[in-house]
Amino acid sequence: MSLKLGIPSKGRLMEKTFDWFAEHGLTLRRTGEAREYAGAVEGMDGVELVLLSASEIPRELAAGRIHLGVTGSDLVREELAGWAAQVVELAPMGFGHADLIVAVPKAWVDVETLDDLDAVASAFRAQHGFRLRIATKYHRLVRDYLRAHGVADYQLVDSQGATEGTVKNLTAEAIADITSTGETLRANHLKILRDPPVHRSQATLFAARGADWNEAHLVMQSLAVRLGLDVPEAVLRGASQKR
Amino acid sequence: MTRAEAIAAELLSGMQGAGAQPVAADILQPAETLLDLYGEDIRARAYVTHDPALGEMMLRPDFTVPVVQAHMRDGAEPARYCYSGPVFRKQERAAGRAREYLQVGYEVFARNDPARADAEVFALFARLLAGHDLRPVTGDIGILKAAVLGLETSARRKAALMRHIWRPKRFRALLERMGGHGPLAEARAELVAQLRGNSAQSQVQEAGQMVGLRSEEEIRERIASLLEDAETSPIPREQVQALEGLLSLAAPARQALAKMRGQNWAALAPALDRLEARLGALDDAGIDSTTLPFEASFGRTTMEYYDGFVFGFVSSRDDLPPVATGGRYDALTAVLGQGRAIPAVGGVIRPETLVALEAAR
C-alpha cells in the first residue's frame, strides 16, 4: 500500500507546496489536463499524490485517509479537537504566513489590548442589552484564546467571508480574522489589538497519527531521508500500536 | 435498569423522602438563556442544535436553569424540588469524560434562614452518600465577594474584580494592575498617556471614520473613566496580600473561621457571621463543623453562578469528576426571575461516578 500525501489542489498554496518539495529534492507535478485533479510524484515509488481543498486536509488527516498533508496550521487547530493527539507537525514550510488577530474599529482610541476589550464588552452589554459581537470563522481558536485571557460578555457571530465588513454593516462590533498585510483591515477602518495574535499560521506538513502506517512506514522512512525530515519515532510507533 | 439508574432512583426517592417534589425539565433548552448566563464558553461545553422555528437550542447541560425558571413561573414558597435525568456535555477528546450522564438533584427555594437551608442540603447529601468513601469540601463565594467589596478602592475597580471572581487568572491579573504592577499596568499607563494629550473628541475624529454600533459617546465615556481611574491610588499592597492569603486558605471550617476572624477585616464580618450561623446549623444537622474541610477558593473555577455557600463530595480518584457539587445561587434567580428573586440552594449527584467507584473496589 502506498503512502498518501494530500496537498492543496489549486492556487498559490499548491504552487508553493510544489516549490517546497522541489527544494527538498522531490518533484511533484499535476497530471492529466489542467482542470483534472490528479498528480504524481517523480523519482520515488510508493507515494500517491492526493489533491484536495486545503480546508478538507485537516479532516482527511484526522480520519487517517491520508498519511501526510499540507495545510495551514490555523486550519488544523480550528478544525480538529485536541489536534495534537490526531496529527504531528513534521515541518513548518515557510510560506502561507498569516496571523489570526482580533481587530476593533480604529475610532476606539480607548482600546489597545484585550484588557480594554474586556472592559468595553462589559460596558457595551450594559448599554445595549446584548453581548459584544465578534465576527469570525475561527470559533474554536478565538473562543479558547478569549477564555485564556479572561474576556467575558462577548459572543461569536459566524462570518465565512468579508469579515472586515461586518462592523460597518452593524452585524458585529469587532472581528477575529486572518491577516497578512493588514491592508483590508485598514481599508475597513479597523485596527489590530496589541496583544500577541490568536495564532501565527503558516503552511505546514502534517502526519496523521491515525493513518495505517503498517506498510506506509517504510515509504515514510525513505521519504524522511529524502526530505531531510526528522520524523518522530512515536508517530509511526504510536500509529501502528493503534491498529 | 442499569446500576447507575438504580442508584439514581434510590437517591431520588431519598430526596422525595426529605420532602422534595419531583420535577421534569425539557432536554432541549433555548440556547440564548444559557449563553446570556454563562457566556460564550458554554458553547464549548454544551451541544448546540438548531430548531427551524425556535432557533438555537442546547441539550441541557444541567437542570438548574429550567428548574429555577419553572419555580419563578409558578412555584409556591418555600419549595423543595428533586429531579433525575441525563445531562449532556461536549468533550474535546474522543476518550474523555462522559458526554451524557445522569444528574440527580435537590433544590431548596426559601426566604427564611438561609443557614438552615444550606445545612439541610449539605446534610441530606452527606446522608445519601454516607456509604461511599468520599471527602466533603465546603467553601463560601460570599466571603470572597465581601473581601473584594472591602478593598480600599473605587467602586469601578471593585465591580471589575467582582465580574471576574470566577476566573482566577484574570482576577489575579486585574488585581495586579490595580496594585500598579505588571504588564497590564504598563499597557494601561501608556494608553492613559496617549489619551491625556488631546481632547477625547479630537482623538476620536483623528482616528478616522466611526464604524460600528459603539458610539462616539460611549468611547468618550470610557476615556473619561480611564482618566479618572488613573488618578485612583493603587490598591495597598497589604490588602492585596490579605486577599491572596484569604484565597489560599484551607483548613477545618471552625479553624478557618477563627483565622478569618483573626484578620480583623471589618468588611468580612457580616459574611463571617453568615458562615458561623451556617456552621451552627450544620452542627445541629449532625455534621461536625470542627472537622469539616473548608477551602476559600473552592468552586471558583467551575461553578460560576454560585454566590454563597458551595460544597462538593469528591473521591480520591482525580480522573473522575466530583460525585456531588452544589451551592447557593441567589443572584441566578434574580437574573432568571425578570425582577423577582428568591434565595436558593441546591446540588447534584452523579450516579455514574458512584458506579465507577464501586467497580474499582
Automatic annotation (TrEMBL), chain A:
InterPro entries: ATP_PRibTrfase_cat, ATP_PRibTrfase_HisG. Catalyzes the condensation of ATP and 5-phosphoribose 1-diphosphate to form N'-(5'-phosphoribosyl)-ATP (PR-ATP). Has a crucial role in the pathway because the rate of histidine biosynthesis seems to be controlled primarily by regulation of HisG enzymatic activity. GO terms for cellular component: cytoplasm. Pathway: Amino-acid biosynthesis; L-histidine biosynthesis; L-histidine from 5-phospho-alpha-D-ribose 1-diphosphate: step 1/9. It comes from Roseinatronobacter bogoriensis subsp. barguzinensis. This is ATP phosphoribosyltransferase. One of its GO terms (biological process) is L-histidine biosynthetic process. It is an enzyme of class 2 (transferase). Keywords: Amino-acid biosynthesis, Glycosyltransferase, Histidine biosynthesis, Transferase. The keyword Transferase applies.
From TrEMBL, chain B:
Residues 3-226, 230-353 form the Class II Histidinyl-tRNA synthetase (HisRS)-like catalytic core domain. The keyword Transferase applies. GO terms for biological process: histidyl-tRNA aminoacylation. It comes from the Bacteria. GO terms for cellular component: cytoplasm. Pfam families: tRNA-synt_His (PF13393). Keywords: Glycosyltransferase, Transferase. GO terms for molecular function: glycosyltransferase activity; histidine-tRNA ligase activity. L-histidine binds at residues 62-64, 89, 103, 107, 300, 305-306. NCBIfam families: PRK12295.1-5 (NF008952). This is ATP phosphoribosyltransferase regulatory subunit. It comes from Roseinatronobacter bogoriensis subsp. barguzinensis.
